[in-house]
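Bit of a strange request maybe. I'm writing a small parser for structure token strings and I need a real example to test against, not something I typed by hand. Could someone generate the tokens for this chain?
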Amino acid sequence: MKKKGFTLIELLVVIAIIALLLSIVMPSLRMAKNHARRITCSSNLKSLSMAARFFADDTDGYTPCSSNVWTVNSVARAGWCGVTGTATSVFPGNQQIEGTGSAHTGLRNGQLWPYIQTPNAWGCPADPLKESLRSYGMSAQFWGKATVDASNKFSRDGDRVYCDPATAGKVINKISKLKNTGQRFLFVDNAGYNYDAYAALWYSQPKWWNLPNVFHSGSSVNGFADGHVEGYKFDADTVRVVKEEIEKIMSIGGSYKMPQDLDYTKNEDLKYYQMATWGSIPW
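Reply from user aminoacidic:
Good idea to test on real output. This should exercise your parser:
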């Protein structure tokens, strides 16, 4: 009796068909995965934006402090989130490393933790750098480095985070001071860890500060002061620069900031981010 089996040609045909099917299916699977991450990121930013508004409702309209540290009668307190790095000298007892349980100290001490007690809601699932439980930043226009004195008067102790004195008059502490809340950032989808929890951006110069997250297929998602969430598609050149910086950080270390020595005067992405952060472009 003759034994039945596959010929080499038949086997190659089957392999070719499987390869063809995979080439058709895999892009769809990647798109589905990216779409799921974008939905999760949008939900996170929506929750944070609404939490900040609930906080304002409970504090006579004052927003959380966009820094992770502010002072009350010369005592360091957590801002919208506590310190989520390991620099205990800046904020002793509030350090946080990646993990669970007590490792969430920085988030738990933050002003928004009572409103969002889900650690996974504080970072973008598409962020390629997983050094911290938090990757989002609060727009630096709110408070800046803030203090409260013995008479409970709110003030700001400088604008060091910007390295830009022209921002002094642009820092505010209430959402009600914004004219177009639907066009102004409250929380920004950053790429990588920004230690101070600001989503910082230069005001009077054509310069970025923190890396924007371009890892939603060349797009980002941001939370606005009116509570809504909106995506933004980046120019290919911006995507390239961010990815190059991320690759450099992952291979040899470095800062989590955009290169400052490039000419961004014609960069429409920077103009959009400056308008959404500060409301104007003075350069």
